[in-house]
Amino acid sequence: MDFSFTDEQETVAKVARQLFEHLATPEHLTELETGGLRYDTALWAELAAADLLGIALPESVGGTGGGFLELGVLLSEVGYSVAPVPVYATLALGADTIARHGDSDLQRRFLPGVVDGSIQLTAALAEPGSSDPTAPRTIARADGDGWRITGTKELVPAAQLAAAIVVSATTDDEPGLFVVETGGGGVDVRPVATTNGEPFADVALTDAVGWRLTEHTGADIVGALYTRALVGLCAMQIGVVERALKLAASYTSEREQFGRPIGSFQAVQQRLADAFIDTEAIRWTAWYAAWLIAEGRPAEREAAIAKFWAAEAGARVTASAQQVHGGMGIDITYPLSRYFLWAKQIELALGSASQQLARLGNTYAEGLNR
């Protein structure tokens, strides 16, 4: 097990950071956020031009043939710059799922457009009143050669931008995944306000036409998507907390009180040392889970552990960063505010820290019963 990145993965990080630092500056983000939809079409086009949107897709659809670790590296850079592009929704939730489970027709229909930037995708897992994304209440029934999907999904990332949504639903025999085009009948997409201002929407499906994705390994297809979705969130949280900690370190080394930088005070040093340890915990648990996924090994338990740290420790890191800034920490015109809000959004998405602990507790109980 080696967590050092390859030259290709380091290049992905370097190119992405250069693009984001150039095109997703705090000033530009402020301007973009006043316009309503937090999505930068020019930046998305630049990601496509740099071949970053196909890094985890097969060469047969125009991708570069990379895997989940390459995708995780890109997601971490998205978090580092709180970039206004639906990389998580399109690549981690939508395109990755279709590439793994879709037939050749579905792959040709959607994935080349993802690579060239003309298509956005997403996946819908969360449902109202349910704390278990792996047990969908949405219903799928066979209709000739296709399927009809009925149900309600909430907080679907970038649904208002997506050409199609991967939807989890239950058939007569088992849960499955289905691809539903948002422009078809029976699909009602309603944008909702979120903590970090990113585009999310609730989606109501009424006899919407869908194509079923198949599982070739006999594993739980919905559970596999949930696991990968959790680790994708953790990868973004790595970037979020790294940048928040960097902002805090920079501020405390420059801000003076009583004739010396406040970063020289023991209380501030202790607070940031704890934040550094939390950041490392998020980093290593997330990359371990991502490595397991990339190796094709089970990662359900490790994903829950990583999400616990991303949620619990992520909240502590950004809170500490705010507090050592004093009043500046809660100024919404100061860049740090975005990182606090992103950390909070990731903390609660697809299961909070306490929900992950409950999942972990259940797995240990099952093991003891055996």
TrEMBL record:
Acyl-CoA dehydrogenase/oxidase C-terminal domain: residues covered: 231-359
Cofactors (names): FAD
Residue stretches making up the Acyl-CoA oxidase/dehydrogenase middle domain: 124-201
InterPro entries in the cross-refs: Acyl-CoA_Oxase/DH_mid-dom, Acyl-CoA_Oxase/DH_mid-dom_sf, AcylCo_DH-like_C, AcylCo_DH/oxidase_C, AcylCoA_DH/ox_N, AcylCoA_DH/ox_N_sf, AcylCoA_DH/oxidase_NM_dom_sf
Keywords of the record: FAD, Flavoprotein, Oxidoreductase
Domain Acyl-CoA dehydrogenase/oxidase N-terminal: 6-117
Database matches in SUPFAM superfamilies: Acyl-CoA dehydrogenase C-terminal domain-like, Acyl-CoA dehydrogenase NM domain-like
PANTHER family: ACYL-COA DEHYDROGENASE, ACYL-COA DEHYDROGENASE FADE28
Family to which this protein belongs: Belongs to the acyl-CoA dehydrogenase family.
Protein name: Acyl-CoA/acyl-ACP dehydrogenase
